[in-house]
Every structure is written in C-alpha cells, then in structure tokens.
Amino acid sequence: MHQRAFLSVRKLLALAGYSDFDLYYDEFGKPHLIDEKQISITHSHHFSAIIISNEAVGIDIEMQRDIILKIAHKFVNDEELSRLQKTDLTDYIKKLTVKWGAKEAIFKIKNEKGISFKDHIQVAPFELNQTQTTADLNFNGAEQKFNIHFSELDTNFTLVYAFENNDTIQEH
Length: 172
Ligand SMILES: CC(C)(COP(=O)(O)OP(=O)(O)OC[C@H]1O[C@@H](n2cnc3c(N)ncnc32)[C@H](O)[C@@H]1OP(=O)(O)O)[C@@H](O)C(=O)NCCC(=O)NCCS
Description:
Blueprint: H1 2-15, E1 23-25, E2 31-33, E3 38-44, E4 47-53, E5 57-63, H2 68-75, H3 78-83, H4 89-110, H5 117-120, E6 121-123, E7 132-139, E8 142-153, E9 157-171
Antiparallel strand pairs: 1-2, 3-4, 5-9, 6-7, 7-8, 8-9
Helix pairs in contact: 2-4
This protein binds coenzyme A (COA).
GO molecular function: transferase activity
Domain 4'-phosphopantetheinyl transferase: 56-157
Organism: Flavobacterium ammonificans
C-alpha cells in the first residue's frame, strides 16, 4: 500500500507537470514544491490526492469508520459535539469524518507543534448536502479562519481540503 501510495502521488505530480525533483520535504515531513506554489498530499487505502495552489492549502482523505464514534471526544470540543445531530448514526459518522478531515487539513497547513484538534480548532456547523463550511483556529494568541471544502468519494470515503482565509487573522 505504501509503495502504491508513493507511486500514485508521483503520477499525480506528473499530471500536474511536476517531477519528483520538484518536491521536497521539510524537517516536519511537510511537502513543498521548488516553485512558489503550495502543495498538500494525502492517501487512504486505494485513494491518493494532491492539491496545488497559489495559497496555503491542506488536503485529507479519510475512510468513514465506526471507530470515529469512540474517539470523537478526543478531537471534537463540547460545543461542536452538542450541535451534532446523533439520531442518524451513518450521518453522524460522516459529519465526524468531515470534522476530522478538516482538522487534519488545517494541521497540514499550519504544521505547528502543540495544535490540539479539540482545544484549538472549531469547525462551523454544516449539513452533508453542502460542500463548504468554515473553521477557526485559536492558537498561540491568534485567531485564524479557514475555508473548508468537503465531498464524498465513492462510498465510505470523505475528501476535505482547506484554504487559509488571510483576511481573518486576528492577533490577541
Ligand atoms: C502528519 C499527518 C498530518 C498526516 O496525516 P494522515 O491522515 O496520517 O495521512 P495522509 O495520508 O492524509 O497524509 C500523509 C501526507 O501528509 C504530508 N505530511 C506529513 N507530515 C506533514 C506535516 N507536518 N505537515 C503537512 N503535511 C505533512 C505528507 O505529504 C504525507 O504524504 P507523503 O509522505 O506521501 O508525501 C498526521 O499524521 C498528523 O500528524 N496529524 C496531527 C496529529 C494530531 O494532532 N492528531 C490529533 C489527535 S486527537
């Protein structure tokens, strides 16, 4: 799986006009391109995705799994949890997976030690028939907004990508 993920990412790079020599990793494992563009990479089971942008960007693919119910309290804060409708279990799992993906995507943009998914990132309420929401990162005395895009891939996989919304950085 790891080899397939590696090769599929190189294939996607080639489709975007880049070779392996255009990609390098920093000390935290975050990928960068040698030109001025921003890149983010994800792979999950038989899916791989890259996103290339002029703006800071993060991407994540997650499989929708029941286990997320058990770990929800570790990455979703009480306010987010209280606003989630839990009556339809399938939808609840899908929404939690969007939240997880959004927080991973934001983490990939910021790449800063100490960010807690639960304590520092809050995803605004959304419905599954929508494709966008927003999220706030409150970390190190600064508040920053992100635009979150989400969709379902095939069945049981969720794709999420995030862009920094630079108009909204507020220092406290
Ligand atoms: C590094 C991390 C973001 C990878 O995410 P993942 O869902 O495990 O795996 P994905 O397939 O989506 O992403 C893997 C890609 O992330 C990229 N990546 C790795 N470290 C990264 C970093 N520090 N910043 C940005 N991107 C990173 C790499 O490109 C990697 O793919 P590649 O090695 O093939 O190039 C993740 O493991 C992580 O550390 N998350 C934060 C942990 C955390 O705080 N969890 C909270 C628990 S409540």
